[in-house]
Design goal:
CATH architecture of the largest domain in chain A: 3-Layer(aba) Sandwich
Oligomer: homodimer
CATH class of the largest domain in chain A: Alpha Beta
CATH superfamily of the largest domain in chain A: Nucleoside phosphorylase/phosphoribosyltransferase catalytic domain
CATH topology of the largest domain in chain A: Pyrimidine Nucleoside Phosphorylase, Chain A, domain 2
Mean pLDDT of chain A: 92
Number of helices of chain A: 18
Chain lengths: 499, 499
């Protein structure tokens, strides 16, 4: 057959056949064929897609990935023969049928995902199966090890690598405070962070206001060795290709199987050589983990799986009932974290950052048992953490070094209390939604600043929150939404009146 | 953004964005965006795919389906905005979580599948969910009704439409005998058949040896009205687009959720207006349904669901332990069916064909209760069925009208009994495999002829089966396989010897 090249990355190994050729070969869409380049005998197995239009009879359409493997050019001749099924498919089917998978079976599947051999259909069937059937602890360990084996690694010649990870929090940029505290003690903290998916900002989004976050492996390694800490965007580093592909499937379905969360987090930590990790599990009505039992179960699994892959883990369950820090939005959260580092604020974000830093310092023996928090607070209040953070910003191609230089969106609207009262509940989901309507995360300067937390007394006319919007239209839309969906509720003395 | 067109059918509505644009829009791969053509204000919702290569910044890559909807040309400008999730996704998630779906929910999903709004990932999650969670009877009814609503229909002005369907048999072309028997009584039988997937031949493959089977809706309608019967390839008729898409996902996973089988079969029967249908459920070690309990459960569901969509169903459980007829392969099976119609043979294929025809004749009242089989046999033996079949062949652009004109592959190898004995078991899976190695179904003349059935006495040197291969290489390969994996086993008197 003659090759017709398409200059597109398909994200998987695909061969487009004309309906008549497919019939003759006895293959259907989704079957696999072996393609041999007649010029150089290079071979490749691809998944068949069938068309009536894109190619003519006796022509096969190939995308970048297959073109690369076969070193083939438009018009070249190839031989195509049907091949058997991948072993992975038997294992996926086994999991769909409710049986547990062995390490060998899981690692075969992960290898096939990593090397683009599975179609979206096949990979989705697997993810759906681990979502619906669950993964037991052995499978979670197998998955973690498989992801580690398939991923890339950053290795450091000397130094102890530590890390922290928060599972499904909402706002607050503890990472931007913890990393410099830890790095200033001589430990290494090469942090790869995510961008926002459903929140107002991710750590990578916030850090990007101050410095570059699209760093490659070499840069991350160099900065960590020189400065001790770095905050990069994980998406720019190809550390866990299989995991990235799994997340690409989980995202549109908005599913997040518990075992996969654990495997994914720990494999990423392992890829940068972390030996000590604090896992933060916020529990609350408006965050990912709704109840303490789930958090405790996950915490235990994190510790157990960590042990199996050579990591010391401390999983802490934290209060996710209220926001952590008062800012929502990339720039506002960056500004806020800088203010904490500059000593202008010490609130629940600072408290959490020092507690988590303290846990890490105690784990590695930098601080005596029970003295970690104090040590972290001392580093923060002395200004050492701020100095270290500025070093990090500089090493990452620094843009902004001081909280008063952080830009915020010009269109603002203040919301004030209509009566006296005590704040009973803060709906962080609604606060996030308002920030997103105002323009975050695509606009970095947009967002929302909060002025009161749960339990605080409020007088009529007190400022509750301010919306920062990218333009007038978005300000009006966010305002409207906020009036309709008040993110605050007040404590009531009279709960009910009988008339 | 500027449009870059790709002249490819993607099989779904896709928009390819550059990584930087996707980030700015705040969308990830798998999210949905609304695209508005600035020239004519036509809109379309598409699933985002992200690339670094295929398009540049401020450019969106569109495939045929979206190009068609937007009436857009290469270089045109479009506006792109993120949109919310489809409702279908909530329902798919609900099913994944083990809850039952209502009719409205299932029909929303089926509509979205039918109109290409769901990505492969989303559709696969749904199919996986109905496979792992199962569909209860109400869901099966909802699915059947939804597939009927989304499909196309052939309507006949007069006449009673009947049909038969076999669930997962192996060989034998009862359809080629039943259709002319039924058609010669004045009933209408517009049969859409499948091609082989795992067998040596499908009915459409076999019929294609004698006549054209790629017929459109108009032709099927016209031939049925003129002749009474037709045997077309279902794949060439766009009667059930949603079902075809579901099968495209089931196939690579080789899953076939029970409820979906029922819905799929009955929706296809409804699309041609069938009112009376016999469902044949072969049970045996080497066919799809392995045990009688499963067959009985499915049979009851077929009847119940049929009633809900206005169809009278009789589901019969048949013996799938041995082949039905002695031929394996498109041409050999066509030749064999013709021989039955020509009165040259009356064996288990003829018996089954008359029994199923008889059941249909009794259902519609053409034959008295208990007299259907005799009536069918009379039609077959009188030669009326053969005459009708020749009319059908002619109407379908006939090629071959007589069994002695059917070509068979020239390379043959006979397998003879090495000793006297009684045949204990026939492995139809192995027989099929041998036929496939010899070249079927892609080569129509290749296959295998069998000469003995279970229970028959065999003398040393008696012919057991003959392989017909497309060429010498395939003959040798099929021979080798047959020697290694004998499809026959003989009854033993001495089962075990103690020495």
């Amino acid at each position: 057959m003659k090759v017709k090249t398409f200059p597109i990355n398909a994200g998987k190994l695909v061969a487009i056949l004309h309906k008549i050729d497919a019939e003759e070969l006895g293959v259907m869409a989704g079957d696999r064929v072996e393609i041999v380049n007649k010029n150089n005998q290079k071979t490749c197995v691809a998944v068949v897609d069938i068309t009536n239009y894109a190619v003519v009879v006796d022509q096969v359409g190939l995308f970048e990935e297959v073109i690369e493997k076969l070193k083939v050019k438009n018009g070249n001749k190839v031989n195509i023969t049907p091949t058997g099924q991948l072993k992975s498919l038997d294992y996926i089917k086994k999991k769909m049928n409710g049986e547990s998978l062995t390490f060998e079976e899981i690692s075969t599947i992960v290898k096939d995902i990593s090397e683009d051999r599975l179609s979206d259909i096949e990979a989705t069937a697997f993810i759906s199966a681990i979502y619906m059937r669950g993964m037991d602890i052995d499978e979670t360990i197998s998955m973690t090890k498989s992801l580690i084996n398939e991923g890339n690694k950053i290795e450091f010649k000397k130094g102890i690598v530590v890390d922290k990870h928060s599972v499904g929090g909402v706002n607050g940029r503890a990472t931007m405070i913890i990393t410099p505290i830890i790095a200033s003690t001589g430990l290494l903290m090469p942090k790869t962070s995510s961008r926002s998916i459903t929140s107002a900002a991710g750590t990578a989004d916030s850090m990007e206001v101050l410095a570059e976050v699209c760093l490659n492996v070499d840069k991350i390694k160099k900065i960590t060795e020189n400065v001790g800490g770095v905050i990069a965007w994980g998406g720019a580093v190809d550390l866990a290709p299989a995991d990235d592909k799994i997340i690409k499937i989980e995202h549109p379905l908005s599913i997040d199987p518990e075992g996969q969360v654990i495997a994914s987090v720990l494999a990423k930590k392992a890829s940068v050589g972390s030996k000590y990790v604090v896992i933060d599990l916020p529990v609350g009505k408006y965050v990912k983990i709704k109840d303490k039992d789930t958090a405790i179960r996950m915490a235990k699994k994190f510790v157990q799986v960590g042990k199996e892959v050579g990591m010391k883990i401390e999983a802490v369950i934290t209060n996710g009932e209220e926001p952590c820090g008062m800012a929502f939005g990339s720039a506002l959260e960056a500004k806020y974290a800088l203010e904490v580092l500059e000593g202008k604020r010490f609130d629940n974000l600072a408290q959490k950052s020092c507690e988590l830093s303290g846990a890490l310092l105690e784990m590695v023996g930098k601080a005596q048992h029970g003295k970690g928090f104090e040590m972290a607070r001392e580093i923060l209040e002395s200004g050492k953490a701020l100095e270290k953070f500025k070093e990090m910003i500089k090493a990452q191609g620094g843009k902004i070094y001081s909280s008063d230089k952080v830009p915020t969106a010009p269109y603002t609207k203040e919301f004030k209390a209509g009566a006296d009262g005590v704040i009973d509940e803060l709906n962080t989901k609604l606060l996030t939604k308002i920030a997103r309507i105002a323009g975050s995360p695509s606009n970095k300067t947009a967002g929302l600043m909060l002025y009161k937390l749960v339990g605080e007394k409020v007088k009529e006319g007190d400022l509750l929150f301010t919306i920062h919007a990218e333009n007038k239209e978005k300000l009006i839309a966010a305002e409207k939404f906020a009036y309709k969906n008040l993110p605050f509720s007040f404590k009531r003395i009279i709960l009910h009146t009988i008339r």
